[in-house]
Write a structure and sequence with these properties.
Distance between the termini: 32 Å
Number of helices: 25
Strand content: 5-15%
Number of domains: 4
Largest sheet: 7 strands, parallel
Shape: globular
CATH superfamily of the largest domain: P-loop containing nucleotide triphosphate hydrolases
């Protein structure tokens, strides 16, 4: 094992990192540091979070800075505000004994004026989120022609969040003779494309196997009926009294519901999701980092950039749609050589998804048996005893109170006193599990009746007819999967055309020929106004409010009017409807029919969308809807 000195790290930096507890370099640091200290070296590094990536690129960046030139010399791009602040903080710690080094975090959600002032005064290293950096570049404040080193941290996450075009625009403004380092947990086709375009003869450094999970993480799956998921979660949490972990859910609603239930049941928990304000997010993350919370219930998007050491568990309340997100989730535990546990609570219908994850991470899930009530009580009792045994006694502070305490307890024997102290902490679990029935686990060939078969769930219709979540507006977009349009392209389209706004994006539902997406109600008009001016791939974008009963598509399979200027508008009123409107025609009741069936509308789908009077009425394909990809 080499030392930091042998890797070429300077004395000032070594002094700072030794104070931080660094003794020997981790594998990724041993591979990357000497390579980056050279000139003209590009690197693609595949490594999980928590492997020491920040020091791997941070130490060489700091060492290569010329302090005599107060201009931007290094740029670090990262996906989220939280990660941006964390990296900037780490670089500041590494450079503790290097005077006059200026590091600036640049991110949305904070004062752009103060960032502009700092840039004008001069900085050496910029740590930025792509969106805010593009804004500063357009204001002619952030100039990148002096940049010599570029780092893209969590590159796969940036692409998933729709920053592809922003990254392209940034890299085009950086000198071609720069050094470029791309860090990613997974090697996706998009990562490969960007690497081939912007990196020159890049060295690929892989810590572990491509796309696999951390070797220090044990993967356990508990298979239960869907209706028993929360009860299973409680048993798992109760069985590990010292748990310090993140519970991942798929939606904001589910995240808040699970957090509320846990809090109501007496657990130290809170939620983290997109509907929280930035101040609320910061407060929750601060409490979690300081261990004032044991459990954080979070969505994948909200947890991006949350870097917490010593997590004992990651619990997947639902498996993500894509395996890369699972890799990111599980990589949050088992860091820095420590072991961690990634738990998945699944029903029978998720077993196929579990097998796919096993194939990608090159590891097998251990199928666990939920702990019985007696086992849980035993673990909790051991925890109480350990806590009593380890408690620190301050003799001086309590000495004056002891005589009164002794008199109060003199009628109790030592055995009685121990029983009472233990019971005071233990009774909650004893009462709950004394008569609690065991959770029935599905048999191998049993179908989960609580999870309806796909044909009965009406997945296409349900998703299309979905109402927007509270506080959000649901919008229609005339681009779908046949246009090569997916969730990250929707996000990118919105971000690119609403640069001065921070649009809150909710659920995205993809169909073959069109899509639906949600944005904050107060921002819906801004988004529609911005996107309806756009022409993409020769097709004019149409975005409009989806109606209350949206999604009951025309069965004809016709595509919606694409908005092309070449298309002719057809007459929309059928001949039969025109005849029916004649005043001299008798009504149904006059002709002896009952009116119970209600009025007949051949084109009743028109009511589901709001149209301008001059626009042509589209038709819809009843094609299946794809699931939104989530990658962490």
């Amino acid at each position: 094992m080499k030392t930091f000195e042998e890797l070429g790290v300077s004395e000032e930096i070594r002094r700072a990192i030794e104070e931080m507890g660094y003794e020997y370099p981790m594998p990724v640091q041993e591979e990357v540091i000497p390579y980056l200290l050279g000139n003209g070296n590009d690197v693609v590094a595949l490594a999980q979070t928590g492997t020491g990536k920040t020091a791997a690129f941070g130490l060489p960046l700091i060492q290569k800075i010329n302090l005599d030139e107060c201009v931007p010399q290094a740029l670090v791009l990262c996906p989220t505000r939280e990660l941006c602040l964390q990296i900037a903080g780490d670089l500041t710690d590494y450079s503790k004994y290097i005077s006059d080094l200026k590091i600036l975090p640049v991110y949305g959600g904070s004062s752009i004026e103060s960032q502009i002032r700092s840039l004008k005064k001069g900085v050496h290293i910029i740590v930025a989120t792509p969106g805010r950096l593009i804004d500063l570049m357009e204001r002619k404040v952030a100039r990148l022609e002096t940049i010599r080193d570029v780092v893209m941290d969590e590159a796969d996450e940036m692409l998933n969040m729709g920053f592809t075009e922003s990254i392209n625009a940034i890299l085009e403004k950086v000198p071609e003779d720069r050094n470029t380092l791309m860090f990613s947990a997974t090697m996706s086709p998009e990562i490969s494309r960007i690497a081939k375009t912007y990196l020159h003869n890049a060295k690929e450094i892989t810590i572990g196997t491509k796309n696999e999970g951390s070797k220090n993480v044990n993967h356990i799956a508990y298979i239960v009926h869907a209706k028993d998921k929360y009860l299973a979660l409680k048993r798992i949490v109760d069985y590990y009294p010292q748990i310090y972990g993140i519970i991942f859910c798929r939606t904001r609603i589910e995240t808040q519901e699970i957090a509320d239930k846990l809090i109501q049941d007496g657990y130290s928990a809170d939620s983290l999701h997109g509907e929280l304000s930035q101040a609320q997010r910061d407060l929750v993350m601060q409490k979690f980092r300081q261990r004032h919370l044991q459990l954080l219930v979070a969505t994948d998007v909200a947890a991006r950039g949350l870097d917490v050491n010593d997590l004992t568990h990651v619990i997947n309340y639902a498996l993500p749609d894509d395996t890369e997100s699972y890799t990111h989730r599980s990589g949050r535990t088992g860091r820095a050589g420590k072991t961690g546990i990634s738990i998945a609570i699944i029903n029978m219908r998720e077993k196929g998804k579990m097998r796919e994850i096993e194939r990608i991470i090159n590891k097998k899930f251990t199928i666990g048996t939920l702990p019985a009530g007696k086992e849980i009580c035993e673990q909790q009792l051991i925890k109480v005893i350990d806590d009593i045994e380890k408690v620190k006694v301050n003799e001086e502070d309590i000495e004056a109170f002891l005589p009164g305490i002794y008199r109060k307890f003199e009628w109790l024997s030592k055995e009685d006193l121990i029983k009472r102290v233990v019971s005071m902490e233990f009774n909650r679990f004893l009462e709950y599990y004394r008569n609690a029935p065991e959770i029935e686990q599905p048999k191998a060939n049993e179908k989960d009746k609580s999870d309806k078969p796909r044909k009965d769930r009406g997945s296409d219709k349900e998703k299309t007819a979905r109402k927007a979540e509270k506080g959000y507006a649901r919008l229609f977009l005339n681009m779908g999967k046949t246009d090569g349009f997916y969730a990250n392209q929707v996000i990118e389209l919105i971000n690119r055309n609403t640069k001065k706004e921070r649009i809150q994006i909710g659920r995205i539902d993809l169909m073959q020929n069109f899509s639906f997406f949600e944005v904050a109600e107060q921002q819906a008009d801004i988004v529609m106004k911005a996107l309806n001016k756009v022409v993409l791939k020769g097709k004019r974008i149409i975005v409009e409010i989806a109606g209350e009963n949206n999604g009951k598509s025309d069965k004809s399979g016709k595509k919606r009017n694409s908005g092309s200027s070449k298309e002719k508008t057809t007459k929309e009123t059928p001949a039969k409807e025109k005849k029916a409107s004649k005043k001299d025609k008798p009504s149904r009741e006059e002709r002896g029919y009952t009116s119970a069936r209600g009025p007949k509308h051949k084109d009743d789908w028109k009511q589901f969308f709001v149209h301008d009077n001059n626009s042509s009425n589209p038709g819809f394909d009843d094609a299946g809807m794809g699931k939104k990809k989530k990658k962490k």
